[in-house]
Amino acid sequence: MIKFGEYILDVEDVRLLHVNGNFEILIEPKLFELLLLFIERPNIVISRQDILEHLWAGSLVTDNAINKLIGNLRKLLGDDAKNPSYIQTIPKRGYRLVCDVDSLKNSTSSQSNSNLIDSKSKPNRTSNSFFRGKWKTYMGISLVVILSIVVGILIMEKQSDNSLSSVSYSVALTRDQGAELSPIMHPNNKHLYYLKLSDEQLNNELWLKNIDTSSTKQVEINANISHIISIVEKAKDNTSVIFYLDRQADNCGVYQATLSAPVQANQRSQALLKLFDCSDKRVKDIDYHAGQNTFYYAAQPQNYWPNQIYAFDVETKEHRLVTQVQPKGWGHHSLDISPNGEKLLVMSTDSDYKTQLLSLNLLDNKITKGIKFEKPVYEAIWHHDSEQIYYFSSPPAHRIIKSDLNGENATEIINSSEELLPKISRLPDGKNILFSTENKNYNNRWLVSSKKREPIDNSSVFDIYPALFHKSNQYLFVSKRSGRMQLYLANSQYKHAKIVTNLLKSHRLKYVSISEDDKHVLLSADNKVYQIPVDGLNGSDLLTAFNQEHLVYESKDPIISLDWHSNKSVAITTVNNGNPELVTIQISNKKQVKLGGRWAYGLKDSEQPELMYLIEQQSNALYHTSYSPLKDNSSTLQRNFINTQISLPTDFYHAKVDSNNLYYVNTENGNEYLYVVPINKKYDSSKILLNDFSSYDVSKGSIIVSDADSIEGDVHRTMY
Fold first, then answer.
1. How many CB atoms are closer than 10 A to CB 646?
2. Exposed (0-12), middle (13-18) or buried (19+): which is 621, by Cβ within 10 Å?
3. Fewer CB under 10 Å: which end of the chain, C or N?
4. Cα dihedral sign for 382, 388, 390, 392?
5. Which residues, in sequence order, are CB contacts of 338 under 8 Å at separation 6+?
6. Is 457 found in the same domain as 418?
7. How far is residue 56 from each of residues 51, 154, 170, 334, measured CA to CA in Å?
8. Phi and psi of 40, rounded to 5°?
9. Are 424 and 498 contained in the same domain?
10. What is the rounded distance in angstroms from the CA atom of residue 33 to the CA atom of residue 408?
11. Which of 369, 398, 431 is the last residue of a domain?
12. What single DSSP character describes residue 501?
């Protein structure tokens, strides 16, 4: 037991305890290692290089990773970087633990938290000899924790080789401020093209780097590029053709531009041509087949799941559906054409987030099944040999693995400390790849206007899906502060948000909603909907797992929305064959209740308990009807549905009703806006610009939004 400041570190049981609050704080393995490093060397400056060597030996790590980890540790301890009580920044040297460190004797791991904290044994100042004697124990425990996580990941991925060894290392090709993404190398293997997005910019810029000289310059092109598809060299006139995707809703399309020679001092585009329009779909991924002069792309038809694979012939200008079998769940979301042009690699994810890898032979249309992942995987491409594959590991690890299509002969290529971004691309040298990393920080903020955002609690990690209480100033949200998704409770009385779950298994938490009486929480986890009493989240014992009692609804189709209809019934929207469908559930017996009509969404205004709102499937028209207690059977209820004469746009999402106002999010000219539409039409509609939006909630006119505070990222390459 080690006491430092207001905390106790239980080394044997790998726990962090708060002295005054008498509660346990979840701590992820990497933060545990970092804390041990500081505790071993109290009041000694630890350099950034020391942190790298102790925590990431042999792995790809950027400066952003250290900044993020230090920030997360400070957040965990409630520390202030400007006035530190624990971690002090020493400019140009490193960091130092400035609090007193003591050992607690006569304590065992079998004691309760309160017994540990209230121990009458007198603490003694820890000496260096104490840490020298304990360091091997600390490291052994840390390695056991990390090894357990790695082994678990490998089992879930069904790998035959449980000891993946790295066979390459990587170097960063960009170090600019902001995010660099979508890298692709010119066929000459000397010029790197990539997109650059800084915090101040709304549109991506096209940049070029000379690998030999390390010089960078912006390419003059009058376009908004969401994703670089391909670059084809024209040796005859020393030009290149760049194919790119523009995802702007109002101008979505695939374009080509002719670029002057990359060695020119000011490279610019000479021509711009729109090859096809995609405003009727949401394109998830796209690749160009030079031999067929055809684009293959994964897209949502009518902006709803499941995603399908399409092909566009540049010569005939015709689109065709490639995948004849209707996919399940989220559908096909990633694809890649093999270097020999014979096969299409497809990734498909079900509603339960299990991902299937498929190989489609473009010569005979035969499908070969590859790895079946137990968790979602977001990226895979063919190896240069058109037989093996590169793919991302399942979360939470950030690894690139090379294996056979069926997962055999797996080898770890990259192990990164930061998020890996699609898309991987092959280098023209026949053996190396390009990839991008990202460090994105989502914060919860009070949204006042487009120009004024009041920050709340910044964890330097993902804080998403905020849900406001209706009768108090509290709110719940999902965060990865502890290393995996957990629920947190925020209150003006707390200096920092309080963790209220300790889910031992990794879950994908989404769409949190609070009942009208503030007594129950509704949330989606792994495409299941659970209902949890608020009292059960405020106790000393944290919720460690969902059980059958909590389960309200389980769907084979993707869940995209949920809300309360009353304290006793809930409205859930799923997507079936590309169409959103409303399901209404009676909480007491978990039976479905039909409302009559073709409804897509059910919404509730906590300020108007006598009404419930519904959005029609085809027209997106908003209706309301008088609320009456739902029956305990599934018979259709006769109701009088009244059209409010308000119709939502085709691409809307995240619709809510509060205080007689309709709220929804929509994209306009490439930017996301939160629209506020008075249902009684007494006031004009308004819209608020969002910043890389994630989610929001509204109650009594107060809007809380989760959006990106900062985005950093770099382009890297492997080195064989």
1. 17
2. middle
3. C
4. positive
5. 344, 345, 382, 386
6. no
7. 8, 19, 14, 30
8. -65, -30
9. no
10. 32
11. 431
12. B
- The values of phi and psi at residue 627, to 5°, are -85, 135
Give me the residue label for tokens 């993902």.
462
Residues 26 and 53 in one domain: yes
Q: Are 563 and 553 in contact (CB under 8 A)?
A: no
pLDDT tens, position by position, 249-261: 667 899 999 998 8
Domain of residue 7, CATH code: 1.10.10.10
446 and 555 fall within a common domain: yes
Q: Is residue 649 part of a domain?
A: yes
- Does residue 564 sit within a domain? yes
3-state secondary structure string across 192-220? EEEEEECCCCCCCEEEEEECCCCCEEECE
Domain identity same for 662 and 589: yes
Residue percentage of the chain with pLDDT more than 70: 83
For the chain, give the number of residues.
Answer: 720
| pTM of the model as a whole | 0.70
Q: Would you state the structure tokens that stand for residue 649, as one six-digit string?
A: 């746009």
Q: Is residue 717 part of a domain?
A: no
**In the structure encoding, which two tokens stand for residue 16, read together?**
């962090």
Residue 706, token pair as written in the block? 């989760």
- Is residue 545 within 8 A of residue 504, CB to CB? The reply is yes
How many domains are contained in the chain?
3
Dihedral of CA 416/420/426/429: which sign? negative
Could you tell me the maximum CA-CA distance found in the chain, to the nearest angstrom?
85
Q: What is the tens place of the pLDDT at every residue in 600-646?
A: 999 999 888 888 899 999 899 999 988 665 554 444 455 788 999 99
**Residue 716 in domain:** no
| Residue-number span of the structural domain to which 491 is assigned | 441-711
Q: Is the pLDDT of residue 494 over 90?
A: no
Query: Of 133-137, 260-264, 399-403, where does mean pLDDT reach its minimum?
Result: 133-137
Instruction: Report the Cα 688 to chain-centroid distance in Å.
Output: 23
Residue 455's pLDDT is what?
64
DSSP state of 535: G
Q: 331 and 195, same structural domain?
A: yes
Residue from 708, 592, 704, 718 nearest 656 by CA: 704
Residue 625 CA to residue 633 CA, distance in Å, equals 19
Tell me the C-alpha distance between 527 and 350, whole Å. 10
SS (H, E, C) 606-637: CCCCCEEEEEECCCCEEEEEECCCCCCCCCCC
- pLDDT at residue number 449: 60
Q: 409 with 447, same domain?
A: no
The answer on 574 and 606 residing in a single domain is yes
The enclosing domain of 560 has a CATH number of: 2.120.10.30
Q: Which DSSP string corresponds to 348-393? A: EE-TT--EEEEEEETTT--EEEEEEESS----EEE-TTSSSEEEEP
Is residue 114 within 8 A of residue 22, CB to CB? The reply is yes
Determine the Cα–Cα distance for residues 512 and 471; give it in Å rounded to an integer: 17
Q: Are 305 and 283 contacting, i.e. CB atoms less than 8 angstroms apart?
A: no
